[in-house]
Fold this sequence. Notes:
This protein is α/β, with parallel strands linked by helices. The chain has helices spanning 3-14, 32-37, 59-63, 81-90, 94-108, 124-130, 134-146, 169-176, 203-214, and strands at 70-76, 116-119, 155-157, 180-182, 191-199, 219-227. It binds zinc ion (2 copies).
Amino acid sequence: xxxxxxxxxxxQQLLPQSCFLCGDTSIQxxxxxxxxDLPHQVIxxxxxxxxxSTIALCDECQSQPPPYTHTQTIFSYTxxxxxxxxxxxxxxxxxxxxxxxxxxxxxxxxxxxxxxxIPVPLHLARLxxxxxxxxxxxxxxxxxxxxxxxxxxxxxxxxxxxxxxTLSGKQRQTNVKGAFEIIKIASNxxxxxxxxxxxxxxxxxxxxxxxxxxxxVRRVDIWCCARR
Length: 228
Ligand SMILES: [Zn+2]
Ligand SMILES: [Zn+2]
């Protein structure tokens, strides 16, 4: 058993079962009523999932089509989803991370099925610092419900770029340029899904999608937990 799974199991056994958000007794990490209240009912652009007036393409996707086909998010990145993301990214809350991954799996099962899931890779230095890649853990939850395999070694992050959250939209684009490299892809991959925790401007996933398209993958979709 991997250490992250073991820690998460241990966490679940040791901690009293209470809702992370409201503190009420709950058999799952987020209780049924808090879960029902999480923000996700927004109309979005069918390509980049930016909040938009219709499900048609937004102006930006029409004038400059991204290298990916469709983005599916399960939540809007507003409170309290932002709290959940902070917990999984910076507070080592593996119980919430696992729970979000499984929620993604349950909700994404109806989507057009990719052959493989590719988690957005972390640079080795950041992976060492955090101890896990949150996108990989989310992907494992999706696999559990959909059976779609995760390709962990398909690509890597070769530049340790400053966190996107510290940058403006334009800076984000140049920040991730050349940040990734493909290691190994199967010749029969026609359709893949990139897995990310939060999508903001989409620069990171667009750069990753671009190199997979260049390597011959026909369709790249983005599946993220939360979209700004
Ligand atoms: Zn609750
Ligand atoms: Zn769009």
